[in-house]
Each structure stands twice: as structure tokens, then as C-alpha cells.
Specification:
heterodimer, A: mainly alpha, 2 domains, 15 helices, globular, B: mainly alpha, two-stranded antiparallel sheet, 11 helices, 72% helix, ABC_transptr_urea_perm_UrtC (chain A), cell membrane (chain A)
């Protein structure tokens, strides 16, 4: 599928146009057109785009379909939520509890002291480290265990899905430590800065957008590097790559960890912008929904993943506001349509239908211009 | 923790817990058999498997209402007809789905997974629109209610025994189909070597379609059996799908015996641990153990010797 030549720079002029267009939409058009509430909503959608970009690398380029990306999104989000929760549960704020100074849900569950593994999350530096390190370490363990034994394809999908299920049951079951099915809620300030105000949410939106672009460029770099070409080769002919002397498992582990790190950043930004984290973003259903974001955008296209995420989530919000029963039917149909009719998603439609026509139109214009010039 | 109980009480607790494990085992076997046919033999991931089960459950529910309203005299026997109808309904839907979706995707297993997930969402919404979001229960015939007193402390519910008998008979039926019938021979031939099977004149496309339909039909019967021990809701199928896939993968895809052995070990482990731990922790530990074993032994407990 990859027809690009080997000597391609990491950003072609055409890529530049795509990135500039997306940047204009995210940084200029959305903030100008949308009121703060809607802008925050689109900021939430963009946090899912982090996951979708990771999936493009893992699944589209590398051929590894993980149905447990919600796990990494959730772990990143929970790390951030733990820090914010600890800040929100200062002894003054929680004076009415039987044990002041611990998060409210722990008090409700008759815990009288902070569990030891919550302690480090009172430091912001450690939290920022943990947001990335915890999910990456977890994905590394999974990756090593699976790819070293050459488990791939559908087995990998099923096992990652089982891991998502296990983590959800664990979080819901241990509500004294995790906030249970409600998750960690009522988050207020970041270093004394109130994250619930409109101005804070707008600022967080821009931080989120900037981080997303950093992730996009990183993904683009990987995609165009030798590593990216090897991933495609592995997806199509794994044995040949192995016989050529490459350690296939290591590349797979790397790209899986990278996807997890992207998802974790998205999760942490989600918590900051939306103000809570709950197991409903960890389980099987959200994890598979995240796959459809990447699939709608085009599983091979990094920019497509962002557009796909925006489009699907916007449709979800619009449809479930007015016709809640239609949304599930629409989403189901979307899964089937993307697989059966548009395996390359929006990016495929763009590359096969829109772009050639656009090019033809432009060429005709320039030809017409060239013809008129000598006549003058 | 045992000091509070007498020896006979402990014996009774373990017997009851073991029996609860056996019921769970029957449930797992019923769920997994259809999947073992579809995933194990054809390698197709059917994420809508749970919804095929629920279809069988809803068919049973409709028939029980029908019998109660129009032919109450035969009500005690309606269940056997319901199982047959559930098989036919789920099987027919399976046939349709194979024709419309699956046959185009045999070479793209990951895409099959996504497409059938979409199918499962659509079916869930249809169930919700038709039968309502609330769970529905089936009226159980009188002879299935109550329990058999084994000793004065151990009581065995009759519907539990019925589900176990059903699980055993359906397992035997599937075994006979797979290993003693012409169809089963063809399915296994295709599983071993599709091109050779094609070359000796087996109609592989038709066999695939029938295999998928029969797997779905078995799921429908399983759903029908579930109505005897629990209620049915639109999303009930989704809750089982991970367990079911783990049972099949853990047993070793393609091995019927493996599926049954893994259903037995998972269900017994879970129900015994439920006695010591909370339900959710028992489930977490069981699934975690299975996942860890699968990481060490990805091919599952039992494997077929195949030349690939």
C-alpha cells in the first residue's frame, strides 16, 4: 500500500499543507467560532485523537490491532486525576470527613489512611513522569510477553481486550482505592490554579492542541523513518523481515509502547479538561470505539486519524442529543461500512476521489493561465 | 476462617460451591461451543456471538408468553420447542450474516472483528427498541422449579441440573457433528488445508456458510438455556463475550476437548475463589491467571498438530 519512494523527506510540501490546514482549524477556526463550552467539548474529542494517532502507527502501519488502548488512556488519566484529587482533598477542604486529608471516596469506604501508592502522586513532577511511565511500563510488559512469543493478529486483539476488561473490573471492584464506578471526580485546581473556569479551559485547549501537534509530528517522523518502513514490511511479510536479520519483536514492542504513551498523554489531558476520570473510558467498549476513530479517518493516515476522531465524536454528540437510539445504529453501521466499503477511511476517499479531481482542476486553471499569458 | 464451621457444614459449603461451579461450567460450555466451531474451525472472530445468544433467549421469551396465553395445557413442554426455534432463528440470522458480511472478509480477520462488533451494536439497539431496555424473565415451568434435597444441608436446584444436562447433550451433539458426520469431516478438512479440500471437490464456500450458521444456532440454544437461570437484557451478550473468547483461546482453538477442559478449569477456579474473595476479585484473579498462562503458552491447553 505504501507507494512512497525511499528517499522521502519527513514532511513533503503536500504534508505541510495538510498540517497547516489542521493547525488553522484547531488553533484559529475552532477558538473563534465556538463558545467556551463547545470548545471544551472539542478539546475532549482531541484527547481521543492522541489514541487514534497511536492506533494508526500500531494498527495501520504495524498491523498490530490493540483493543485495549483505553487501558493506557485510562492509566494516564488516572495518574493525573490522582494528583488533582490529592490537591482537592487538602485537610481544610475535607474537614467534615471522619479522616480529613484523604480523598472523599476513601472516607466513604472506611479507609483511614492514604494507601502508600497514592503518596508519590502529591508531587507534580512525579505525576508528570508517571503519566507516561506507568502506561509505557505496562505496555512494555504486555509487549514483551506477547511479541517475544510471536503472538499477533487476532490473539493479540483478544488478549488486550481481556486486559481492558480485567482492569475495568479491578477499578470498579476496589472502590475504596480507585473511586469505583464513579471514578475520581470533583477535581478543582492544579497548583492552586482553578481548572474549572472558562479561561483555564481555553488555555488547556491550546496546551492540548500543541501537545497533539507534537505527537502528530513524532508519529510522522516514525512513519517516514526507516523504522516506519520496517513496520510496513513486517505487517505485510513478517517472516521475510525476520529472515533479513531484523528483530521483529523489538520493533513491535517499540511501536506498541509509543502508542501507549500517546494514549496516556491524551488521557491526562482528558482529565485536566473534563475534570474527572472514570472506568467508563478504560473498558472494552471505549477501546473499540477508539479503533473506529482511526478507521474512519483512514488507518494509514496520521492526519486522517484526527479528522476521523473529530467527525465521529461530533456526530455522536449531535445524534445522541437529538436521537439517542439512532446513535448506536449509526455507529454499528459505521463499523461495517468502514470495513466493507472504505477500508482506507476518509484519507482513502480523499486520495482516490477528491485529490485527483482537485489536481485536474488546478492544472486546468494553470494551463488556462499559461495559455492566456502569451496572448496578452 | 474455617474454625467457625463444623466439618459437615464445611463439606456442605464445598459441595454447594462445587455445584455452583458446575452450573457456571455448563454456562461457559454452552457459550463457548458455538464459538469453538466458528473461531476454532473457521478462524473467524465473531464479536456478535453474544447477540446471537440473546436472540435465542428472546425467542424463548416470546414462545413462553405465546404458550402461556394460547395453549397453557402444553406450557410445561414449551421449552423444547423454544430451543428448536432458537436454533433455527439464530442459525438463519447467521446464514444471512455470513452471506452479507463474513464471506467478504475471510482474508482480513481483524476487519471481521470490527465489522461483527458493529453488527453487535446494531443488534443490541434493535433488541432495545423491540423488547425494551429492561431485562425480561421467562416463566419457568413448574417441574423445573424447586430443588432436590440431597442431604438435609445440601440442596440442588432443578433448573441447574437441567442446564447441566443440556450442556452435556449439546456437547455430545456437537462432537458427533464434528467428528462423525460428513459435514464435520469437510469442516475439518477445510481447516487443515483449504486448497486441498477445494481440490477434492468439497464445496468450501457452502461448508463455510453452514459452519457459521450452525455455530450461531448453537449460540441461540445456549441463550435459550440461559433463560432458565437468569433474565435477559439487550446488552447481556456483550458481558459474556470476553469470557467466552478466553475460554476458547485458553482451551486451544480448534480443539473441542480443550474448550471443555478450559471451561471447566476457569469456572471451578472462579467459583472456588468467590468463596474466599469478593466476586470481582475472584473474576480479576481468574482472568489474570488465564491471560498470564496464555502469554506463556499462546497456543492454549490443547493443540492440534497441523502443518501450516
Amino acid at each position: 500500500m505504501n507507494t512512497t519512494s525511499f528517499k522521502q523527506s519527513f514532511l513533503t510540501p503536500r504534508d505541510m499543507i495538510g498540517y497547516a490546514l489542521l493547525a488553522a482549524v484547531i488553533f484559529v477556526i475552532f477558538p473563534l467560532l465556538l463558545e467556551p463550552f463547545r470548545l471544551n467539548l472539542f478539546g475532549k474529542y482531541l484527547t481521543y485523537a492522541f489514541v487514534a494517532v497511536g492506533l494508526v502507527l500500531c494498527w495501520g502501519v504495524g498491523g498490530i490491532l490493540s483493543l485495549g488502548q483505553g487501558v493506557f488512556f485510562g492509566l494516564g488519566g488516572y495518574c493525573m486525576a490522582m494528583f488533582l484529587k490529592l490537591e482537592a482533598s487538602s485537610p481544610e477542604n475535607t474537614a467534615i470527613q471522619s479522616t480529613p486529608g484523604i480523598p472523599d471516596f476513601m472516607d466513604w469506604n472506611q479507609l483511614s489512611a492514604l494507601p502508600w501508592w497514592w503518596e508519590p502522586f502529591s508531587s507534580f513532577g512525579f505525576t508528570l513522569f508517571a503519566v507516561i511511565a506507568v502506561p509505557v511500563a505496562f505496555s512494555y510488559i504486555i509487549g514483551v510477553a506477547m511479541f517475544r512469543r510471536r503472538v499477533g493478529g487476532v490473539y493479540f486483539a483478544i488478549i488486550t481486550q481481556a486486559i481492558a476488561a480485567i482492569l475495568t473490573i479491578l477499578i470498579i471492584g476496589q472502590q475504596g482505592f480507585t473511586g469505583g464506578v464513579n471514578g475520581i471526580t470533583d477535581l478543582r485546581t492544579l497548583h492552586g490554579w482553578d481548572i474549572r473556569t472558562d479561561s483555564a479551559k481555553t488555555l488547556l485547549y491550546f496546551v492540548n492542541g500543541t501537545l497533539l501537534f507534537a505527537v502528530l509530528l513524532a508519529a510522522q517522523f516514525v512513519r517516514r523513518s526507516k523504522l516506519g518502513r520496517l513496520l510496513i514490511a513486517m505487517r505485510d511479510q513478517e517472516d521475510r523481515v525476520r529472515f533479513s536479520g531484523y528483530d521483529v519483536a523489538n520493533f513491535k514492542i517499540f511501536v506498541f509502547c509509543l502508542g501507549a504513551a500517546f494514549a496516556a498523554i491524551g488521557g491526562a489531558m482528558f482529565t485536566l479538561q473534563v475534570g474527572f476520570m472514570s472506568p467508563s473510558f478504560v473498558g472494552i467498549v471505549p477501546s473499540i470505539e477508539m479503533v473506529i476513530f482511526a478507521a474512519v479517518g483512514g488507518r494509514l493516515s496520521i492526519l486522517g486519524a484526527v479528522w476521523g476522531t473529530l467527525l465521529v465524536n461530533w456526530a455522536k454528540t449531535t445524534l445522541s442529543e437529538s436521537f439517542p437510539e439512532l446513535w448506536l445504529l449509526g455507529l454499528g453501521a459505521l463499523f461495517i461500512a468502514v470495513v466493507m466499503a472504505f477500508p482506507n477511511g476518509l484519507a482513502g476517499v480523499w486520495a482516490e476521489q477528491v485529490e485527483p479531481r482537485l489536481m485536474k482542476l488546478l492544472r486546468r486553471d494553470s494551463k488556462a493561465a499559461a495559455q492566456t499569458t502569451p496572448a496578452e | 476462617m474455617f474454625s467457625d464451621y463444623t466439618a459437615s457444614e464445611l463439606g456442605a459449603i464445598f459441595a454447594m460451591q462445587g455445584f455452583a461451579g458446575l452450573i457456571l461450567f455448563s454456562v461457559f460450555v454452552l457459550m463457548a461451543l458455538g464459538l469453538a466451531i466458528i473461531f476454532g474451525q473457521m478462524g473467524v472472530i465473531n464479536m456478535a456471538h453474544g447477540e446471537f445468544m440473546i436472540l435465542g433467549a428472546y425467542v424463548t421469551y416470546l414462545l413462553s408468553n405465546f404458550f402461556a396465553d394460547y395453549i397453557p395445557a402444553l406450557f410445561s413442554m414449551y421449552f423444547f420447542l423454544a430451543m428448536l426455534c432458537a436454533f433455527v432463528a439464530s442459525g438463519a440470522l447467521g446464514l444471512l450474516v455470513e452471506w452479507a458480511l463474513i464471506r467478504h472478509l475471510y482474508k482480513r480477520p481483524l476487519d471481521t472483528l470490527l465489522a461483527t462488533w458493529g453488527l453487535s451494536l446494531i443488534l443490541q439497539q434493535i433488541y432495545r427498541s423491540v423488547f425494551g431496555a429492561r431485562e425480561v424473565g421467562v416463566t419457568i415451568p413448574d417441574w423445573m422449579m424447586g430443588s432436590l434435597p440431597l442431604t438435609d444441608m445440601i440442596e440442588i436446584p432443578i433448573n441447574g441440573i437441567f442446564v447441566m444436562v443440556l450442556a452435556v447433550s449439546i456437547s455430545i451433539a456437537v462432537y458427533v457433528m464434528m467428528y462423525r458426520s460428513r459435514w464435520g469431516q469437510q469442516v475439518r478438512a477445510i481447516n487443515n488445508n483449504r486448497q486441498m479440500a477445494d481440490a477434492v471437490g468439497i464445496n468450501t464456500a457452502w461448508t463455510d456458510r453452514m459452519t457459521f450458521a450452525i455455530g450461531c444456532g448453537v449460540a441461540g440454544v445456549a441463550g435459550s438455556a440461559f433463560t432458565m437461570i437468569g433474565s435477559t437484557g439487550p446488552t447481556a451478550g456483550q458481558q459474556y463475550i470476553v469470557d467466552t473468547f478466553l475460554v476458547v483461546v485458553f482451551g486451544g482453538a480448534g480443539s473441542l476437548l480443550g474448550t471443555i477442559a478450559s471451561a471447566f478449569s476457569i469456572s471451578q477456579a472462579q467459583s472456588i475463589m468467590e468463596f474466599f474473595l469478593s466476586g470481582s476479585m475472584a473474576k480479576v484473579l481468574t482472568l489474570l491467571t488465564v491471560v498470564c498462562i496464555l502469554m506463556l503458552r499462546p497456543q492454549g491447553l490443547f493443540t492440534l498438530k497441523l502443518r501450516k
